[in-house]
Amino acid sequence: MKEIITVLVTGGGAPGIAGTLYALRHNPDGIKVKIVTCDVRSNAVGRYLADEFYVVPPAESPDFVTMLLQIATKAQVDVILPQVTRELLPLATNSALFESRGIKIAISAKKTIEQANDKWIVLEVAKRCGVPCPESILTKSEAELLQAIRYLGYPKNKVVVKPRLSNGLRGLRILSEQPWDVARFLSEKPESIEISLNNLLAILRSGEWPELIVQEFLPGVEYTVDVFRGRNGTIAVPRIREEIRSGITFQTKVDLRPDLQFYAIKLSEELDLKYAFGFQFKASDHGIPKLLECNPRVQGTMVTAAFAGSNVIWWAVKEALGEGVLPTDPDPEAHGMRFIRYWGGVAVYDEKKTAGPI
After folding, report:
1. Sorting pLDDT into bands at 50, 70 and 90, what band is 191?
2. Nearest Cα to Cα of residue 316 among 79, 21, 37
3. For residues 215-230, b (16+ Cβ closer than 10 Å) or e, as one string?
4. Which of 76, 79, 75, 80 is CA-nearest to residue 59?
5. Domains of the chain, residue spans
6. How many helices (H) and strands (E) does the chain have?
7. CATH for 113-131+219-340, among 3.30.559.10, 3.90.330.10, 2.40.110.10, 3.30.470.20?
8. What is this structure's pTM?
C-alpha cells in the first residue's frame, strides 16, 4: 500500500460524516489518508472536515457519474467510499469506467445493490435462509392495503406501512388509532411517524399508488449490525440503537449477540454483499430480533465498530485496493460499550476562515 492514499467519501453532509472520516484517519495500519468529500450542497459540513471538497449534482442527474469521475481523476483518488443510497446504483453500474482510470469503488455488484435496495427481495431472501423477519404483505392497491392491515389485526394492533423502495424513514408510517389528547399533544414532537388510516389514505389517493409493504409492528429493542465482508472473511458487530431522533442514532450500545452475528453473516453471503454495509433488526414482543432492512453502504454510526476493535470502514477501503484484509472479531471487552453522538459544528466566517470543529 502507498504511504498516502486518497479516499473520496460521498455524502459530505451526511450525519455520520465525522465518524467515517475518523475511522479512516485513525486506521489500525497507521496509513496516512487524504480525504476528499463531495455533496449536492455547497455548505455541507464535510467541506470543512476534509482535505478537499467538491459540489456534485444529484445521483439522478445524467451528469452525476461524469462529474464524479472528473473529480476523482483531478484529485487522484484511489478509492471512492459511497455513503448515499441513491448513488449506489449509478456507481455500481459504472464501476468498470472508474476502474479503467485506476479508481476503485468500495461497492457491491450492480445486481446485489438492486436486490439489497429492494426491501421485499431482502425479506424473501431472509425467509429462504432462515433469518427471522416480521410477517409482511406486499400490496399494490388500496384494496390490497386494506385487506393486509385487517389480516395483521388493525385497528387493534399497530401496523407498519412502508414503500418497497426507499431509504431512511422516507415513506415509513405506523398505522395507529391511538387517540390524541392534550397530554399526548404536549408531550410528543410533531415528527411522530404514527398516522391514522384515514390520513394515510388521503395522502396515497392524491397521486399514483405505490407498492407498499405492510408489516406487523415490532415493539421491542432495535438493533443495527455493522458488517465487513471480504475475500478472507466476514465479521459482524451488533449494537442496540438506544436513542434515535428522526431516524438517526444518537446513542448506541455494542451488544455482541451471536444470533445477530450469525443472521447478518448469513444474509451477507446470500445477497453477496461486499465491503462495509449493515442490517437493521427489531425485537418482537417475545424478544425475537426480526430483520427490518439492509443498508448496502457505510452506515451513519458505523464508527462504533472501529471503537469496538473492528474498523469495517477502513477494511472496506483496504479491500478495494486489493490489500489482504484479515478481519478480526470485535474485542469481547467492547460488549456494552456505548457510542454517544452529540451536536457539533463548525463556525464559517468566509471561504478561508473557519473555527472548530467542536
Report:
1. low
2. 79
3. bbbbeeebbbbbbbbb
4. 80
5. 4-108, 113-131+219-340, 136-216
6. 13, 18
7. 3.30.470.20
8. 0.94
